[in-house]
Design brief:
heterodimer, A: mainly alpha, B: 3-stranded antiparallel sheet, two-stranded antiparallel ribbon, extended, cell cycle (chain A)
């Protein structure tokens, strides 16, 4: 699955839960729906049956149930995203910046050596919130500068000269400021511990089971004669 | 058109698309064959709801949903009784209330809610307003008669025209036949040589033909244009007033990208540090060109274009080259490169 599809799916997931509660919509289903939708949007189409066939943990009956649920939630997801389905991921800006480096900045010998670290940084960044806070080109630039500084190379001259910022001190300082913030956020993020995760999972299951029961009983009140 | 098939024999609707479904007063459908079979004795019970029915109650279904047909039947019956018109009421509000009453009754009867009360109400209303109902019935029939008369007149006009056309044709045929007959007779009897007779005959038949043509093309003079204006009417030709406005001036669209300027699509092949260009020339040539390259932008541009057929220069040599299949479709490497550069540079400076 191309990286942009994964990036898009993660962005959908984040944006959805900005406006909706985890208690109302179980994250597992929403996660599957986000992945399915982003495959469609990013032209990496998989049919729904193929998609659920990849869920090896489920029995075939369970897979069909999941397929139905995905189709139910898809429209809701699109609606909650405010129908903004195009997500700009930092991967293309990163490629563009690498091209620019190779073309206009010969001081840096081999930008390709930075690529692995850049990818790692971007994956780590997608686990945090910075996709919601900064533009994708800024994220890509931070990633490249970060991996360059890790390799011990100094890229300040690139920013000041090639990006034409020699005169514009204010923009320069703002840029540095946001890059610093991004670095802090990404560094500080760590995966939550399994015990915490399990406790949350149990709470979710309990609340969702109760919610389901409530909905069913309410349905029975309004439509007592549901034989039609 | 085929919903789910007849509820009894199920298959026949698919196999026989010309088969019709019949509806009756309880709202359930049966195909023609099943009606025949079940109601061979004239009366029976409905298959789905067991209400006693008569065969004569079945009508051919007009609508896809049998419930709609049932409602249409009920509405017809109700409206026979509740047939007051809008001028019977002193104000609009009362007329609307009356209409709402009718709708309530139809709804109740269709969905089998409170059927007895509704029927009682209907009978009461009928008793009270008997004379009003009679009067309105009479009015209705009068209007219908007028409509029918108009239709009849139109039909008669059409018939008349058709007969006229037929007669004309017959007359023309007869004229032709007489002409031919006359020729044969003359050939038999007269003394004039045959060629002259033939010539005369040809002239006469040509004359006949032109007459027929003229008759066909003669349009009856009418007095009205197609828009309804009389032909003799003169329409005043007031000149249309001229409206003068400021002409639209095109201004180039400016897009603020909040970032450093990205290179243009056309320049992607040429821009780039001079060392790159040097790397792509042969050693001998590079000595010659290097002086010119450092002096100005002009030679750099021309130099790179002459070799671009095989090597890409500037930005483009860091992008995957376009295959012949891609270029055939109109794709150029510059497109992908340009897009990546735009994405990299836009939004770089914060707001």
């Amino acid at each position: 699955m191309p990286k942009s599809v994964v990036g898009t799916a993660v962005m959908y997931f984040r944006r959805f839960y900005l406006n909706n509660s985890v208690m109302e919509f179980h994250p597992r289903i929403i996660m599957l729906t986000c992945a399915y939708l982003s495959c469609k949007v990013d032209e990496f189409n998989v049919s729904s049956s193929q998609f659920v066939a990849n869920l090896v943990h489920e029995s075939p009956a369970g897979q069909e149930l999941v397929a139905e649920q995905i189709l139910e939630y898809e429209l809701l997801l699109i609606q909650q995203l405010n129908f903004h389905l195009v997500v700009h991921n930092p991967y293309r800006p990163m490629e563009g910046l690498l091209i620019d480096l190779k073309t206009r900045y010969p001081t840096l010998e081999n930008p390709e050596s930075l690529r692995k670290n850049v990818d790692d940084f971007l994956t780590q960044a997608s686990l945090t919130d910075i996709g919601l806070l900064f533009t994708p080109s800024q994220i890509a630039l931070t990633a490249i500068l970060n991996s360059a500084s890790r390799a011990g190379l100094n890229m300040e001259s690139y920013i000041t000269e090639c990006l034409g910022l020699k005169q514009d001190k204010e923009t320069l300082s703002k840029l540095y400021d946001s890059m610093r913030r991004m670095k802090i956020i990404t560094k500080k993020y760590e995966l939550p511990k399994p015990e915490v995760v399990n406790a949350c999972k149990q709470k979710l299951e309990r609340i969702h089971a109760e919610g389901l029961r409530l909905v069913l009983s309410r349905k029975r009140l309004i439509f007592p004669d549901d034989s039609r | 058109m085929d919903d789910q098939g007849c509820p009894r024999c199920k298959t026949t609707k698919y196999r026989n698309p010309s088969l019709k479904l019949m509806v009756n007063v309880c709202g359930h459908t049966l195909c023609e064959n099943c009606v025949e079979m079940l109601f061979v004795r004239g009366s029976g019970n409905c298959v789905q709801c067991d209400t006693p029915l008569r065969k004569s109650n079945f009508r051919v279904q007009l609508f896809e949903d049998p419930a709609v047909d049932k409602e249409v039947e009920i509405r017809k019956k109700v409206l026979k009784i509740y047939n007051k018109r809008d001028f019977d009421f002193p104000n609009l509000r009362e007329y609307n209330d009356y209409l709402e009453q009718i709708e309530d009754i139809v709804f109740n009867l269709t969905h089998n809610i409170d059927v007895e009360n509704t029927k009682l109400r209907m009978e009461q209303y009928q008793k009270e307003n008997r004379d009003v109902i009679q009067r309105n019935k009479a009015k209705l029939t009068r209007e219908q008669e007028e409509l029918e008369e108009l239709l009849l007149l139109e039909q008669q006009g059409n018939e008349q025209r058709r007969l006229d056309v037929l007669q004309e044709e017959q007359r023309q045929l007869q004229a032709k036949r007489k002409n031919k007959q006359a020729l044969l007779d003359e050939l038999e009897q007269s003394q004039i040589p045959a060629t002259i007779l033939l010539a005369k005959h040809k002239a006469r038949s040509a004359q006949l033909e032109t007459e027929i043509e003229q008759q066909k093309q003669s349009v009856k003079p009418t007095s009205l244009f197609s828009t309804g204006i009389q032909q003799s009417q003169t329409v005043s030709l007031v000149p249309i007033p001229r409206i003068e406005e400021v002409l639209y001036q095109y201004t180039l669209l400016k897009v603020d990208t909040y970032g450093p300027p990205a290179p243009d699509l056309g320049q992607l092949g040429r821009l780039g540090s001079t060392s790159q260009a040097l790397f792509f020339r042969g050693a001998a040539v590079c000595v010659l060109f290097s002086l010119e390259l450092f002096s100005g932008d002009g030679p750099l541009c021309t130099g790179s274009t002459c070799t671009e057929t095989r090597h890409q220069s500037g930005y483009l040599n860091h992008v995957r080259a376009a295959l012949p299949q891609d270029t055939a479709g109109g794709y150029t490497t510059a497109m992908a490169c340009h897009r990546a550069m735009q994405d990299a540079f836009s939004g770089l400076f914060s707001l």
